[in-house]
Amino acid sequence: MRPSRFGADHFTLRLLGDRAKNAAIWDELPPLDGANRLLASSLKPRAIVLAVDQNDNPLLVAETFGAGRVLAFAGDTTWRWPMRGFDEPHKRFWRQVVLWLAKMDELQEGTVWVRLSQRRLEPGGRLEVVVGANSPTGDPVDGATFEAEVALPDGSTSPLRLSRRGANGVGTFADTRTAGDYTVTVRARKGTESLGESKARFLVFEEDLELDNASADTTGMEALAAITGGRSIAPEQLPELLRELVEKTEHLEEKTEIKQTWWDTWPFFLLLVGLLGVEWFLRKRWGLV
Q1: What pLDDT, in 10s, does the model give residues 270-282?
Q2: In 66-167, beta strands by DSSP E
Q3: Whether residue 123 is found in the same domain as residue 96
Q4: Does 233 fall in a domain?
Q5: Which residues does 277 contact at the CB level (< 8 Å), separation at least 6?
Q6: Looking at the domain assignment, is residue 223 inside a domain?
Q7: Three-state SS across 50-91?
């Protein structure tokens, strides 16, 4: 598979920015195992052949119909490209096919992007931020500089320091003590020209252990009811339980049990008083008082 003379500069087949290097990379790609046959004579007048095989038979055909776009691809084994070490060309080819069909091939150079290591953090967590700017073909924009800041939940902003990693910028944000919604804003420039800006949001959530498992523990409640001689009922059985309680209230029997020991009797009290009186009498008679 190789670009035709019309497809050499087409967005879908532009794997590299330089035309000579782009042609070279197509020559290096593994050949397709097979393809459906598309006859050039059967193509519609407005159809454009973008890629052909070694015999100049059409493999990739494009057509614009009204406000829509159509692509017909006759090949079926591009998945072999990554297995031979051409993973990046494979991704770029199919990415640009989708972008062209979606009419997103006319993006201006300097498409700025932000990639966050995660979108949800616990308070005090650290977030890694990677930023970059790509051309419409997906190539990084050389010489781009980036500025980033983070909007905090209270409305204030905090600058985000970025270090260079190839053509991209990398930074770490750690001021996540306050729960709420944060927004990362990145602006890119190339010299004095603005390449645009991009935003990404992430959330710092405050974990509530009490509400982690807010559902009722029905198994535990049933076991507790069985141990204490009660019974477990479902919410929909509440009206029936209320009727049952009303019926039982009409025949309520109250039993009172009273226990009386000999300590609580009058004879014991009189005996105790008599013994104290005898003791006092004898002590007085014997001169002990």
Answers
A1: 888 899 999 988 8
A2: 68-73, 111-116, 120-121, 127-134, 145-151, 157-160, 163-165
A3: no
A4: no
A5: none
A6: no
A7: EEECCCCCEEEEEEEECCEEEEEECECCCCHHHHCCCHHHHH
Compute the distance between CA of residue 160 and CA of residue 152 in angstroms, rounded to an integer.
Answer: 12
Task: Decide: helix, strand or coil at residue 280.
Answer: helix
Most confident range (mean pLDDT) of 41-45, 137-141, 166-170 is 166-170
Q: What is the pLDDT of residue 109?
A: 44
Amino acid at 79: W
pTM for the predicted model, two decimal places = 0.43
67 and 154, same structural domain? no
Residue 287, token pair as written in the block: 């001169």
Which residue is it, tokens 């004898």? Answer: 282
Max CA pair span of the chain: 151
Tally the domains of the chain: 2
Question: Which range of residues forms the domain containing residue 48?
Answer: 2-101
Residue pointed to by tokens 């509400």: 211
| Mean pLDDT score of the chain | 85
77 and 19 in one domain? yes
Across-strand partners of 198? 186
Looking at the fold, whether 117 and 186 belong to one and the same domain comes out as yes
Q: Which of 159, 180, 204 is the last residue of a domain?
A: 204
In this structure, which amino acid lies at residue 288? L
